[in-house]
Protein: Pyridoxal phosphate homeostasis protein
Organism: Luminiphilus syltensis NOR5-1B
Amino acid sequence: MDAREIATNVSKVRDRIADAAAAAGRDPECVALLAVSKTKPAAMVRAAAEAGLHAFGENYLQDAETKIEELRDLGLEWHFIGPLQSNKTRTIAANFDWVHSVDRLKIARRLSEQRPEALGPLNICLQVNISGEPSKSGVLPGQVPDLAATVASLPGITLRGLMAIPAPETDPVKQRQPFAALRHLLESLSDSLPHLDTLSMGMSSDLEAAIAEGATIVRVGTDLFGARQ
């Protein structure tokens, strides 16, 4: 895919976000587009940046490290959105601006301890297994309040909100149900953690449903860069 195609795709996805926000009575500026660049080469990320994108999501640390270094001149914002292993936290803490996939206290503590002070706090989202799928990562909804309270107290990181990857669904009405549940969960934390402001939810196939339920970050890969090879 060349730079012109990527620029066209960026425009199309931005239009989708704007239309979905308008339909929900929301300001499109309140919904950030996170370009999921996992497995895509640095040249495609550069083209997307030239088309106006600033934030990029990566799942695979080794692949991400190479791109982050090669594209350092662009001053991009990097989000780690994949499964977290304990032996990778030091590198993630030193290279990323956000981590969306924290689902246990051990990982949060390691990120807290290993975040270089000079970089400022690392933005954190707790990944919630909102659909209750046995095979999927994420803390169960009932465990979120206790984990959130502890993570929010750790130095070096800032708990920003919640992330989820619901079970795939094609019916727009059914798509909204887990997103609504995640929003209600975030709202339930507002009394004790009023600073939480992030709902990272919605991808290429369901971003309209996510925006209708309050998404503040949508994670889009396929509709920007094409399907994974």
User: Anything to note?
Assistant: The chain has a mean pLDDT of 95.
